[in-house]
Each structure stands twice: as structure tokens, then as C-alpha cells.
Amino acid sequence: MESSSAAANVFSWSATISACAKGSEWSKALGLFALMPEKRVAPNTVTYGAAISACAKGSRWEQAVAWLSETRRLRALDVLSYSATIGACEKGSQWQRALGLFECMPRMQLRPNLFSFDAAINASQKGRQWQQALGFFTAMPRAQVAPDLYCYNAVLASLHEEWLYSRGKPTPGEFLRSFQLGDYFRVT
């Protein structure tokens, strides 16, 4: 009976931390996570994922990376925690660290998902690495991940910044032809 109570406890803590992280209460989520050892509740994969997501909302990339290391040590590493850490690094202007984490995913036997690609493309944009942004974007179909509006916007913003910097204001057709994006975008 005690073990089912403990399991319910970690689930209720995880749900509460997740709800705070999804709302605008990332600091409360982190505070709750910090209380868990005192309450003798061991975090699980879901709890770590929720706490790391809260770190992303609060641009607490250092804490996200530390907790990702902890999930690795506990063998609780999953794609959601990894993606959230990439997002936390991206939001914390740590674009090189974000891209490094993304590149490590295959070695960790994790398959990048939409959130991983989105964070990597955004990190590339922040680092003015338009080639990498485009590379991640064009790799999505091979990874069987369909880009969403955020991915399209981020890759286009990255390419547009490069174009403006190097060539001036383009027409939409020139822009898409220049980056060989005809398969992804249509100009009407």
C-alpha cells in the first residue's frame, strides 16, 4: 500500500510541476521540484521533463543542463527532457550548446522530435548559422518529422537575415530559388 501511495505522490508532484511549467509559473514549478527531496519523493522521468521544461520557460539553461545530466546518471533520459534542454539553451542564448546537444542525440540513442528540431533551428537562427538552420529543416523529412509553423518561420527568418545582410531586399521568388527551397515553399 505504501508503494502505491509513493507512486501516486510522484505522479501528483509531476502533474503539478508540469501544470506550473505549462502555465506562466515556471518559478513555482522549480520551487516544487526543489522541495521533492525534503518531502522524500524521488523524481521520475516525467518530473525531470516537467522541471526541465520549466527551466526552458525561465531561460534557466544551466539548471536544465544539470538536470539532464542527472537524468542520464539515473538512466531516465528521454527525448522530451533532451528536447526541453535544447530549448532551454536556445532561449538562454546558448546556441552553440543547444546545437551540441542536438548533435549528441543519436549517440544517446534518442531520435529528434519536432521540439528538438524547432529548438535547433531557432538556436541556429540566434547564432546566425543559416546553413545549419537550413540543414536541420531539410533533415526533418528524412527523420520522419513534419515541420510546423514555428520551424518554417524560424528557418525563413534565418535565411532572410542572411539575404538582407549579404544581398539586400529580395523578391520572394529570388529568395526561394537562391536557397533551393522550391520543394518546401510555393510562391503564388
From TrEMBL:
Which InterPro entries does UniProt cross-reference here? PPR_rpt, TPR-like_helical_dom_sf
Which PROSITE patterns would you find in this protein's record? PPR
Task: List residue spans for each PPR repeat.
Answer: 9-43, 78-112
Pfam families (UniProt xref): PPR, PPR_2
Which terms are listed as keywords in the entry? Repeat
Its name, as the record gives it, is Pentatricopeptide repeat-containing protein
Species of origin reads: Effrenium voratum
